[in-house]
Amino acid sequence: MRIREAICEDASKISVVHVDTWRSTYDGIISSNYLNNLSYSKSEAMWKGILCDKKNDQFVYVLENDSKDVVGYVCGGKEREYGIYGEIYGIYIDKRYQRKGYGKKLFKKALEALTNRGYNSVIVWVLKDNPSYKFYEKLGGVRANCKEIKIGDSILIEVCYQWDNIHVLDI
Questions:
Q1: Which CATH number does the domain housing residue 75 bear?
Q2: Do 83 and 39 meet the contact criterion of CB atoms below 8 Å apart?
Q3: pLDDT of amino acid 84
Q4: Pairing between strand 154-163 and 2-5?
């Protein structure tokens, strides 16, 4: 397994992980109608826009297995609301590779990328009903805020986890 910076040609592979992990992670949280209507082609177009546009400040790293299949990714950049903090926009890993320490490795890679961009603090938003919130709490994230968001026809609660000084984290 290795982590490397994503390139434009990874868009289709990332889109498969993106759609599949949303469907498995958010089953029972987000409406099945919304999840069933997720599209690999729309996801791929979104990822091409992110990966092929060298002007954005976003980073994306992929997790590859020994066969060079993309089985996970992390992305982030400037915090999207106020621009004060760094933000991890998402960590998603194929179900077969979860709970093996790869999430922690992707989190660490994201912290390195944010540090290299000059950020000292980081946040991540997690759906309240997503059990992965425990992952962020184990890494020392502190609940800092909550907000309502709309995904499809559902109104959900998103929780913000914050790390004030990423330079002192022992991960």
A1: 3.40.630.30
A2: no
A3: 82
A4: unpaired
Residue 157 vs residues 26, 33, 53, 147, 168: alpha-carbon distances, Å: 13, 19, 31, 6, 30
Q: Which domain holds residue 84?
A: 2-168
How do residues 39-49 score in pLDDT, each as one tens digit?
999 999 999 99
Nearest Cα residue to 88 out of 101, 102, 103, 77: 77
Domain count, the chain: 1
pLDDT tens for residues 92-136? 999 999 989 999 999 999 999 999 999 999 999 999 999 888 999
- H/E element holding 105? helix 102-116
CA–CA–CA angle 59, 60, 65 (5° rounding): 155
The single residue listed with the structure tokens 């987000």 is 30
* pLDDT level of residue 56 (50, 70, 90 thresholds): confident
Q: Enter the pTM of the model.
A: 0.91
